[in-house]
Amino acid sequence: MEIVVLGAGSVGMLIASFLSEFNDRVTLVTRREEQARILNQKGLLRKNLDGTTTSFKINSSTDFPSIPSNTLIIIAVKYIQLTQVYETLHNLDPSIPLLFLQNGLAHLEEAITLPQQKIAFGSCQFGAERENDRTVHHRGQGVLKIAVEKGEVQPFALFLESPNPLFKVEFVESPESMLFEKALLNCFINPLTSILEVTNGVLVENPGTYRLLKNLYKELMVAFPKEMARISFDDIENLCRRTAANTSSMLGDILNFRPTEIETIVGAVLKKAAKNGGRLPMLETLYLLVLAKEGSGEKM
Ligand SMILES: NC(=O)C1=CN([C@@H]2O[C@H](COP(=O)(O)OP(=O)(O)OC[C@H]3O[C@@H](n4cnc5c(N)ncnc54)[C@H](OP(=O)(O)O)[C@@H]3O)[C@@H](O)[C@H]2O)C=CC1
Ligand SMILES: CC(C)(CO)C(=O)C(=O)O
Asked: Does domain 2-172 have CATH number 3.40.50.150?
């Protein structure tokens, strides 16, 4: 099966590297000509958890290659960049399977209005950090959860062929629950790492941020008792520890003066709580601080 990964950032390059270990028909679609040229000429590099580096020969292009219908398209751009991507996907063959890997909740309703008959969503619980246009760091082992919204599992089952024990994939039932659970996890890590400009591991090493995580846990437990019953405090701690060296995707945006995904992650969780009459003053404060920081880039 051909695989096209759209978006050669942290997640796109990391996923493409793992897929290239058992499939030699992976294409990385980039936004910039320069990046495609570097990837084609020099290949893709993955810096592994054990300090080694693996290199991969990879096809890269700024255009979609002519896509046969047995191609899987993996969309690894940020939520904010999806608007442009939807237009392209809209014009593709409706039988082509699509897998969306964004954090947050907003893309779920949007993506399912596309004409494609096979659509799945992924929840990445690993860390990925782009070093440059051809180099990505694997910053923490974690599962890639996949939930199919439209069509059958079969086209997405190719992930199970991965021979690499560090790239684990698990199929789950409901995209909505899976994405909400991931958004809850991101509420603990992404805003705090962005405000404090620290890597994920610091949140559990520093006594002050550790207390903040505990208090936030209590607050979210009251607002979402059913959903939070599936997430233990240990799960949050483990995610911070497993991805300890990672720069969260939101902090990456802040450091590069890009808009963050605060609305689709934290904003969406706050809205859901408000709908049920719940209030989340701590999370709302973190949300406002990220918004303030996001808007401050040009003025500083
Ligand atoms: N990083 C992480 O550890 C994790 C990230 N995630 C989620 O994964 C998603 C992707 O995040 P991440 O990889 O960190 O983001 P990055 O910003 O690193 O990567 C996004 C990439 O998409 C490219 N892009 C933007 N628009 C287009 C387009 N129209 N066509 C082709 N490429 C395009 C960008 O190109 P350019 O560089 O030219 O702007 C960039 O390389 C996010 O929703 C994030 O929340 C989830 C779990 C972990
Ligand atoms: C898994 C985690 C927390 C890794 O940093 C992430 O989802 C992100 O950075 O957005």
From this structure: no
